[in-house]
Amino acid sequence: MIIAIVLFKNKTVTKIVTISFVLLHIWLTLHCWTNLNKTELGYFTFNSLGVLLLSVLSFLTIPTVYHGFIYALKDDTKKYDIYHSALIALMTFMTGAYLANGMTVLWIFVEATTLAVAALIYHDRTEMALEATWKYVFICSTGIALAYLGILFLGFIYGRDDAANLSFASLINIINLANPLYLKIAFVFVLIGFSTKMGLFPMHTVTIDAHSVAPPPISALISTTLMNVGFLAIFRVYTLFASSSILHFMNNVLILSGLLSLLVAAGYMLKANHLKRMLAYSSLENMGLVAIAVGVGGYGYYAALLLLVLHSLTKSGLFYQMGQLSRVLHTFKLDECGKYMQIYPAGALVLLLGMVCILAIPPSGLFVSEFMIFKGLVLKDKWFVLITVIILLCFVIYAMSTRIMHILFSNSRIEGDSKAPEMVNPVESVSQFVLLGIVIIMCFYQPPFLVNLINQSFALLPK
Amino acid sequence: MVNYLIVLFAVTLVYFASAERLIIYTRLVGLQGLLLCGIAIFELKEVNTANLIFIAFESLVFKAILIPYLLARIINRSGVTKVHHLAMPGFYSLILSIFALLISVILANSLVNSFVNTIYMTIALFTMFTGLLIIVTHKLIISHLIGFLIIENAVFLFSLAIGNKMPMMINVGILLDIFVGVLILGFFGLRLKPHTNELTMLKD
After folding, report:
1. Window 103-142 of B, Cβ < 8 Å to A
2. Is B116 helix (H, G, I), strand (E, B) or coil?
3. Which domain holds residue A216?
4. Does B179 sit within 8 Å of A148, measured CB to CB?
5. Final residue of a structural domain among A245, A278, A298
6. Least CB–CB distance from A131: residue in B173, B175, B202
7. With contact defined as beta carbons under 8 Å apart, do B17 and B94 qualify?
8. Which residues in B lie closer than 8 A to residue A214 (C-beta atoms)?
9. For chain A, which terminal residue's Cβ has fewer other Cβ atoms within 10 angstroms, N or C?
10. pLDDT above 80: residue A247
11. Looking at the domain assignment, is residue A250 inside a domain?
12. Is the pLDDT of residue A161 over 60?
């Protein structure tokens, strides 16, 4: 498909190819649903967690491509083609990562996503875009190299005269025989390495810059589905090692990483002046909660996966709205925004609903997942973690709500000449209402097929 | 023979810690590429010949020739010859480097494995710590790049340690080299403007 885009150099052809890709992707997801736990081409298995996250990606490809067409409308043909080629490549690599059944194949696809994302972040060709792209490529490469070191340690555990196979199915049988120190080192390297993708402390800085500079539809994708790729890689290793003696160690490391992510997110959100950076820190906060949920275990496993799905829907809706906000108000800077409810009510309503959803205020579905995390913390007597999380979340709620309310109802803080607001068709906000509507419905009703799939995803983990 | 090459590799790492001129870094990166080529040839006796030739060729061409050449071009374009004045002085870097070596020795002796040579483990860990040290203590983009290249060499060394049993791990490590060489150095290194030595635009 990318070859077709490159050969024809025509916007209409590019659009047709991109839409065809979306349809193909949806077909693949349906195929995976009907063939759960089946292996194809030797390297790809349609297991529950992979299919769950693949479904989220498939669902989000539709609004991403739609908003991408609008965003890139005024680009020249070359830029337009590069954007859509890189987008197709990114979604393909993410799909490969979701379905990979071995550590090495997973690593290759995760590394490949860095290439595709770099091209997308650099779309606007500004100095800031170049800096963000450089930082992203460099830090992700460092992270990926560290993750590979972790995989090599797995190889040290496995290395024998028989088949050199790092598939999850073969590794799970020998983990209990391995030196626990090797397992701990492997886990720490994998966590640090893949935290560049998941946007978790300590390698979170790269995602903040990337999400704030990338085109809004791309920010929507990389702050949700790409973070899910990072989570998947870490979760796979966690599941592998869960039956060993280092489970307690892994849980402590995840909780610590989650708490530090929350701390950084809360601190920086309080001083954020750029709206997309604020949303990027919100993603860091949610990934921190996911890490804490996995570390807590029990109820936390379900909560983590539910939070991932709902966060993906909510955050992407907010980022799509950011694209419209920048067209209406011509800025992402908080000080230059104001009276959005008066100028563009449909978009303002999306922002308001999105704020309620992402802050896990009922009737947001995220409230259910965060409540389950708190329940898990109470049941495991982790009172210090619980109190710290609640305090930090209060800061996050304060930071985000004051900023959103200012944008919606207050005057701009900068006086003087400013460009007249551009009118945007309210129909463009429909996709965001649909996404947020699903999140709100999930607060009251979670479909059985989703519940089953999530439960199957952590079936191998201790209760 | 392999042990001599590995120890020589460690000596280059100590030199990295104390050097302050970027051209020295470039030459050391090339030297490390040559040493890794030699280690691969002497160590990988059980790998099939075609794969061995590919690995030796890649380490010679990419690590020993292409990457140092691209680094030299970037240094010439940027006009910067020394590390940033705010970077950690060579003396303190050297002390930290020695600590890193001690930690590597202790860790490697804790991670005794029946088919991985302890010297391999020690020097590979030391290489990784040196790379991280350079990234953390230096300010220029080019210094960070060199730190990353050193981490890459650590990955390559680790993968050579299990290369006889799992040759695919080395091939995957080579993918990382090609990724770095083509993307980071070939594209970004030449696109970044000469004055862009520090990344200061994106901040809160």
Report:
1. 110-111, 113, 115-116, 128, 135, 141
2. strand
3. 1-245
4. no
5. A245
6. B202
7. yes
8. none
9. C
10. yes
11. no
12. no
